[in-house]
Amino acid sequence: FSWSEFFWEYLLPEIMPLGFAIVSALIGAVVNMRIPSALGDLINILNEQATAGLSTAAEYMTGLRGPVMQLVSLYLCQGLATFAYISLLSHLGEKVACKMRKNLFESLLRQDVAFHDQRKTGELIDRLTSDVQDFKSSFKLCISQGIRSTTQTIGCICSLYSTSAKLTLALAATIPIIVLIGSFVGVALRQLSKSAQAHAAEATGKANEVVANFRTVRAFANEPLEGQSYEVLIQKSCKINQFLGIGIGAFQGITNIALNGIVLGVIYAGGYLMSTNEINPGQLMSFLVSAQMIQRSLASLSVLSGSAVRGITAGSRVFEYIHLQPSIPITGGRKIPYHCLLGHLRFEDVHFTYPQRPDHEVLKGVTLDIKPCQTVALCGLSGAGKSTIASLAERFYDPTSGNITLDGVDITQLDPSWLRGRTIGYINQEPVLFSGSVEDNIRYGRPDATKDEVVSAAKLANADSFITNFPSGYATVVGERGLALSGGQKQRIAIARALLKNPSILILDEATSALDAESERLVQEALDRVMVDRTVLIIAHRLSTIKNADVIAVMKHGKVVEVGNHKELKKKGGIYSELIKLQ
Ligand SMILES: Nc1ncnc2c1ncn2[C@@H]1O[C@H](COP(=O)(O)OP(=O)(O)OP(=O)(O)O)[C@@H](O)[C@H]1O
């Protein structure tokens, strides 16, 4: 957690409300400090009036008017200052939290696919929600209470000093000891808090996964199992938090005892000074209220230290991901002008290992030439590395060695957002639709597309007829909490979405394998129509879907072992003909 970065990037743009909030908190603290002496004045006047033996109520009231008015105006000022700093800090806190969430979310969107492979969704969402919330609450509390309590402590010590230097020095000597012990305990508590938050995030990740895959959990009747594993995770975080609570509680309890002891000491010593006529009863009253204010301020500072521990830990978890740099940028690099783009994709001796499985080489020297407007099919046994090839073409990952080129240019030189957003259309087995209308989902392929373009992409994808049959047509809401579409319908919307960007290269990764015969026919019909005049890479298990491909490459254990067309490979009597027999 970098304070300087936090100040320059998050606080400086909000310096006005921050400044006013600090000034209001300071005014509140100063006003608070004036109250003991105003009370002291009132006591002195009451004392004098009692000694003088005033008889009428009017005389009594007249004498009190001055100090009472002074107290009332102090109370009003204090109320106003409290209102000002609380509302200003809320404004500031919300702005800071909003900016942190925006920066964190943008950073998560920038990260490599490998980063997301390695982390649970819930853990990331936890940082975006709970951690930012914890940081914001703690930040607001630290500014408001921190400024008030610190100013009041310092101010009250000064006012005590003016009353009795000896007594104040003795009092001040004990405070650094408490602060020193407090900072040691603070470091230990921070460690504990960090570990508690990490466990809570793990539990959120688990909950997220289970809720997202609820149907699978229900289908396997695994509710008790999932309940138990969630409980194990939450119990870990619960135990550490309980331990943390004991630590914070013990620290605050001991601090309170020490502080109350200090007040007792002040009463004892103050009483002695009064008996030697060094101070009057009013001064003793103000002395006591000041000492009690110091006690309250220090107690709230010790509570604050617990909140600061949580806040800094949460903040460092947020900034950890904000600062993370992806190894593959999402923008920047060359773009091949549309009229020059041929769509010649070539893999040259490509080796690849997934970052989270460094001991398992998935591609072991793949060479594959996909010529412009050619349809190349990849087949082979499950786990041979076919989908990995598609991921590398999309530059979700970079090869460990070897090159992938598009029209002779290494794809690492090309702008990744141009490559994915404009050049390659990727359709896989399980299309994901976002919540929103059918039209929004198709337009996701190219946000600036017109309604006519959306409709013609849907027509090409064989989707227009079923969409127009819905009562709300293209405005029908789908995705989460929307209309449940069949697999074939979803797939055709996904095809329309991919087509909207008019990609030069189309990658179809098992695009029809999850569909029934009728849906497959409709989707295949759409695909046959859109594959014309494009470079196409098809990945399929069902060999009937690829037999018309110009080139078929058979993969085994991360290598391309056979290349040719259907007839040639069938005649060859190798793995391909074995696969045909099997099917
Ligand atoms: N994100 C990932 N992280 C780690 N390993 C992975 C990842 N994705 C795939 N693998 C591994 O890489 C190997 C190749 O997987 P890939 O999905 O490319 O095979 P495939 O030929 O497409 O298989 P299928 O036909 O079953 O889809 C497998 O051993 C798989 O376990």
TrEMBL record:
Pfam families reported for this sequence: ABC_membrane (PF00664), ABC_tran (PF00005)
Biological process, per Gene Ontology: oligopeptide export from mitochondrion; potassium ion transport
UniProt-listed SMART domains: AAA
GO CC term, one of those recorded: mitochondrial inner membrane
Family: Belongs to the ABC transporter superfamily. ABCB family. Multidrug resistance exporter (TC 3.A.1.201) subfamily.
UniProt domain ABC transporter: residue ranges: 345-582
Membrane topology (UniProt): Multi-pass membrane protein
Organism annotation: Ciona savignyi (Pacific transparent sea squirt)
Protein name per UniProt: Mitochondrial potassium channel ATP-binding subunit
A GO molecular-function annotation: ATP binding
Subcellular location: Mitochondrion inner membrane
